[in-house]
UniProtKB/TrEMBL annotation:
Domain PHD-type residues, every copy: 241-291, 295-412
Keyword annotations of the record: Metal-binding, Nucleus, Repeat, Zinc, Zinc-finger
Cellular component, GO annotation: nucleus
Matching PANTHER family: BROMODOMAIN-CONTAINING PROTEIN HOMOLOG, PHD FINGER PROTEINS
Annotated compartments: Nucleus
Compositional bias of kind Basic and acidic residues: 696-723
Name of this chain's protein: Uncharacterized protein
Length: 735
């Protein structure tokens, strides 16, 4: 008797091919592809008229066919198609105001705002609006750019309003209307927000970094690493060296040192993070440099710690995520930024769920085992201590991503599993990303346990009232900003009623906006700029840079001259070698010159490749490969020997090979046109070298050269200089 559940039968779904891939016999049973079709000709029409005149389809049917069945079929088909079209949904349209309609209703800003960076969208010519697309002016004129931010720079409005700002301005205007004050404009609001952002930037440069208890911070990191693991290398014991946040190794050398960030205390190799030169002073990672004290989310994983770099569209991502996701790449491998290729990541990768953190966030990688499809984030694998190996280092991983190998906990190599607790690491990672734990950790961040009396005493102190930021990290606007904003309005002749009240409302709104966005509202400058320098110091640095630029250009010219000198020296040395061979080994020089001419004509390497399958040695004919080898090894002692081998091969090719073959065209056409002249010149050169006293000249050269001073023009003259008889001989040999 069979027990248990019955076995389910496998139901195979019928595969249905698309219509264009289906044979026509499945739709038309009675249609035979071999049948001959009848052709009917319209009588009474010339060929040109039947070809070029356009005839309606119904008239052509009436003329071609007298059968009513065809006409009935066509009419029935039309009615059927019409019924199908009537059942389909028809598109509906509604008119939406475009940018042109909105711009027509806008008023041109006043000249007071235009000098602050606003642009008139209406053309002054002929009373018509300009059709050209507006583009921002050169950002080099702005104050908030790298290397050009100074306190007394020309002010330019950089803030752009959104829908929320529009509602806030309308709310302010309602309040002002109740008090009988004039409404404010959108331009005034954007100007105020830009001014507050710039003032906050200058204050941040003056504020010292917050004092931290380094020992307490290290103990807290060690405890957190033991409880939840670490994906950035922090939290190791004092006896151990902190590992790199990218490659997870702590070995280094003088050319690839480990650098610590003075902001977030992560450790990275120079090659892993793109640090060609270590600065003398403090060094900040890219996230601490651009977005200080802000938790940035990675675009490909849920982690907020580690070594970050920016993508080409302004988002943030881990360097380790960019390395392990195959579709991503680093545009500049020297500086390891920006991260590009986000559009190449397939949709299926974005839909994968990490089996470690149980989250469907970002893009996951998968186990390298062919039969395993487990997906996990790169940072989750690092926190869980899974197998992540760079076979050829960081540079090899950038050049070839197939050198990256990773395995899940089930397929981890045995050697790795013996020294790393992957199962325990997975549990720590899941605990770290659990919802209740995230809420508790966010509440306990930077919290100091104090009693209620001490807390009351601290909140009543004067320093608490003058704090620089809220409990969520948003900056608090000091009264100095409000006063400066009022002075700015007066300076730019932006008259507004109730200026103090308006400045206070905008300052409060700016604080709330910063608290919600957790980032600057305009494009902030790079903190490594020259804002702390005076105009004279900046000008002095520019002068030094211009001198360095001139020196570099001079070095470029010197390098080009050195290259030309090397080329001329090489050509001169080649000529000296040729002359030496011509004088000391004239016969070999003649043979080699003829052989080199033959090889120069063989541009397609026909001699070495042709006639390889035929036995030419039995017929006493040398092959092309044998001739080439003898020429290269200088085995031809006389020119006539080389000529005989070439002619034997030519006679064989003319007799046995077709005229269209490559070797026939080479030996009969290309070489045949010039061989008589080349043979004659080479034999004449060889005979001339044998008939002249070249051996006597060589013997005299071995005895040494003696020189003496002459009074004519202070030149050195050789006692054994070649006589007038020898000079024409040398010239004739060279020719």
């Amino acid at each position: 008797m069979q027990r248990g559940r019955p076995k389910k039968r496998k139901v195979t779904a019928k595969v249905v091919n698309p219509r264009e891939e289906t044979d026509f016999t499945e739709y038309y049973d009675n249609l035979n592809g071999e049948d001959v079709l009848d052709v009917k000709v319209i009588e009474g029409q010339t060929e040109s008229k039947a070809t070029h005149d356009v005839i309606s389809s119904t008239a052509l049917l009436d003329q071609l066919y007298e059968d009513t069945a065809i006409r009935d079929y066509v009419s029935t088909r039309k009615l059927h198609d019409k019924e199908i079209l009537d059942r389909l949904k028809r598109p509906c349209f509604r008119h939406i105001k475009g940018t042109n309609d909105c711009e027509e209703s806008l008023e041109s800003p006043s000249r007071r705002y235009m000098k602050l960076g606003y642009h008139d969208i209406h053309s002054r010519k002929g009373g018509k609006r300009s059709t050209e697309t507006y583009t921002r002016p050169d950002e080099g004129n702005y104050g908030l750019v790298k290397g050009g931010l100074l306190y007394n720079d020309l002010f330019r409005v950089l803030y752009d309003m959104d829908e929320q700002d529009k509602l806030f301005v309308e709310h302010i205007n309602k309040l002002r209307d109740k008090k009988g004050l004039n409404p404010t404009s959108y331009e005034l609001f954007e100007t105020s927000m830009t001014f507050l952002e710039m003032q906050d930037f200058f204050i941040e440069q003056l504020l010292p970094p917050p004092a931290k208890n380094q020992n307490a911070a290290n103990e807290r990191q060690i405890i957190r690493a033991s409880m939840y693991g670490s994906d950035d290398g922090k939290g190791v014991s004092p006896e151990e060296d902190q590992c790199c946040a990218v490659c997870n190794r702590n070995d280094c050398d003088s050319s690839n040192a480990i650098v610590f960030c003075d902001g977030c205390n992560i450790a990275v190799h120079q090659e892993c993070y793109g640090i060609p030169f270590i600065p003398e002073g403090p060094w900040l990672c890219r996230r601490c440099l651009i977005s200080r004290n802000q938790n940035q989310r990675c675009l490909f994983c849920p982690s907020t710690t580690g070594a970050f770099k920016q993508t080409d569209n302004g988002y943030w991502a881990h360097v380790i995520c960019a390395l392990w996701i195959n579709e991503l790449y680093l545009a500049n491998p020297i500086y390891m930024e920006p991260i590009e290729g986000i559009q190449n990541v397939p949709k299926n990768r974005w839909k994968l769920t990490c089996y470690i953190c149980k989250r469907r966030v970002g893009a996951c990688i998968q186990c390298c085992r062919n039969s395993c499809f487990l997906a996990y984030h790169a940072t989750c694998a690092r926190r869980a201590d899974l197998y992540l190996r760079l076979k050829k280092g960081i540079k090899g991983a950038i050049d070839n991503q197939s050198t990256l190998v990773t395995f899940c906990d089930k397929h981890t190599p045995r050697e790795w599993a013996l020294t790393h607790g992957t199962r325990l690491g997975i549990e720590k990672t899941r605990l770290f990303y659990s919802l209740s734990n995230i809420k508790r950790r966010s509440e306990e961040t930077n919290r100091i346990s104090v009693t209620s009396d001490i807390k009351k005493e601290l909140t009543n102190t004067k320093s608490y009232l003058f704090r620089w930021s809220t409990h969520k990290g948003a900056p608090v606007v000091p009264i100095l900003f409000v006063k400066r904003l009022q002075e700015f309005f007066k300076k730019e002749h932006l008259d507004i009623q109730g200026c103090l009240e308006f400045a206070i409302l905008v300052s409060k709104y700016w604080t709330l906006k910063r608290e919600a966005s957790k980032a600057p509202l305009i494009r902030r400058p790079d903190p490594s700029n020259y804002s702390s320098l005076t105009d004279e110091q900046v000008e002095e640095r520019f002068t030094v840079l211009n001198k360095i630029k001139e020196d570099v250009l001079k070095l470029t010219d010197i390098s080009e001259s050195a290259v030309k000198h090397s080329e001329v020296s090489k050509a001169l040395n080649d000529e000296i070698i040729n002359q030496a061979e011509l004088i000391h080994f004239p016969q070999l020089y003649a043979v080699d010159s003829l052989g080199q001419l033959l090889l120069k004509c063989d541009k397609s390497n026909v001699l070495s490749n042709a006639l390889q399958d035929k036995d030419l040695n039995s017929q006493g004919v040398p092959s092309g490969q044998e001739i080439i080898e003898k020429i290269a090894l200088h085995q031809y002692q006389t020119t006539q020997t080389l000529i005989n081998d070439i002619e034997k091969l030519t006679d064989y090719v003319v007799t046995h090979e077709s005229k269209s073959s490559g070797i026939y065209r080479l030996l009969k056409s290309t070489w045949g046109k010039m061989k008589k002249r080349k043979y004659t010149e080479t034999l004449r050169m060889e005979k001339l070298a044998a008939d002249t006293g070249i051996e006597d000249l060589k013997e005299r050269k071995r005895e040494g050269l003696q020189t003496k001073k002459t009074e004519d023009k202070g030149k050195m003259v050789r006692e054994d200089a070649p006589t007038s008889k020898d000079i024409p001989i040398a010239k004739r040999l060279r020719e």
